[in-house]
Amino acid sequence: MSRYILYQRDDCHLCDQAIDLLARARFPEPESVFIDDDSVLEARYGHRVPVLRDEATGAELDWPFDAEALGSRWR
Q1: Hey, what CATH topology would domain 4-74 get?
Q2: Which of 18, 33, 35, 65 could form a disulfide with 41 if both were Cys (CB 3.0 to 4.6 A apart)?
């Protein structure tokens, strides 16, 4: 299991941008969780996706974020 989760939607261009940014920043690959068919996740993250969550600390980072925001506190 990954330490990080990326909450996202199917066919989400912002989610694609977040995935690309994470790859370019050489960030550890997160587990992808799609919220589309989950009413609980939809209620929590519906307007916020993509959201990166650190499972170790519970911290969440809403889009838009950049490589700087992924700095040392997120690794």
Answers
A1: Glutaredoxin (3.40.30)
A2: 35
